[in-house]
Write a structure and sequence with these properties.
Length: 267
């Protein structure tokens, strides 16, 4: 934490970047070269630079290291990494999660539950696999007919095989953060990157008025808080652009580098 305290004395920005579609090229999954150059220069100039992602810690920690950063808001805002130390990684609200699980089960939908920050998911039957198939991401499945979801200590994510056309049947859907990347199933995970940023700034005794956020997609809407300076990528969804203070070029057209240069954070 000593390095953070030293930075607090400088004229600096606290800059948070989404990963997918912002730092990385979606076609390759790799960081855009000019974005990497911008990250390096921002840090050289004394700014606090961090990732803000919905990815779980286990999925994001290697990327953090690869791009040479030390700090990260992950797990949709429930995880905080400072100087490469995981200082917080909270699961979903237990009672709300169990209520969603019970409702989905009563409606006849398959369920997968991630009780750890890992690729492991558990279910009492194969209903999810029959209704939605296997997930496209690396996943280790455990089917245990004896499992009692209410006995799980933590619940980090929930996957429910409810089609998009039937979402309204799940009346408790909006009580937890949810995202749909596939038509076949709905994913519940923490969804408040804004709060994660606020918590991190408080922890390092930073200035909330000097926060800058970069994003591109719908899950970044919550991060575009009016207290922050909000930069939308040129490839961002229209809803995010409407909330932005500044719209830069597409991420693959040097959008991050150009925005940082225009604002005088790098040369």
């Amino acid at each position: 934490m000593d390095s953070l305290k030293k930075l607090e004395k400088n004229d600096m920005k606290y800059i948070f970047f989404d990963i997918d579609g912002t730092l990385t090229d979606n076609t390759t999954g790799k960081i855009v070269p000019s974005a990497q150059e911008a990250l390096d220069k921002l840090q050289e100039n004394g700014n606090f630079v961090a990732i803000a992602t919905g990815r779980a810690y286990y999925k994001a920690k290697n990327f953090l290291k690869e791009v040479g950063l030390n700090n990260m808001v992950c797990n949709g805002g429930n995880g905080l990494v400072i100087n490469h130390q995981l200082v917080k990684n909270a699961p979903l609200d237990r009672q709300k999660a169990l209520a969603v699980i019970d409702e989905a089960e009563n409606l006849g939908y398959g369920i997968l539950i991630a009780p750890f920050d890992s690729i492991d998911v558990y279910s009492k039957n194969t209903l999810f696999l029959k209704q939605a198939g296997y997930r496209k991401e690396p996943t280790r499945y455990t089917i245990d007919s004896e499992i009692n979801y209410h006995n799980l200590e933590n619940i980090y994510k929930i996957y429910i095989s409810i089609p998009a056309s039937e979402e309204t049947r799940l009346t408790l859907k909006d009580t937890l953060g949810s995202l749909r990347f596939e038509q076949e199933y709905l994913m519940f995970q923490p969804d408040d990157k804004k709060q994660g940023i606020v918590d991190m700034i408080a922890m390092i005794k930073g200035n909330i008025d000097d926060v800058v956020v970069f994003g591109d997609d719908y899950n970044d809407l919550v991060m575009f808080d009016e207290r922050f300076y909000r930069i939308a990528m040129g490839n961002a969804c229209d809803e995010l652009k409407a909330k932005a203070d500044y719209i830069t070029d597409r991420n693959t057209s040097d959008g991050i580098y150009n925005a940082c240069r225009v604002h005088g954070w790098i040369k």
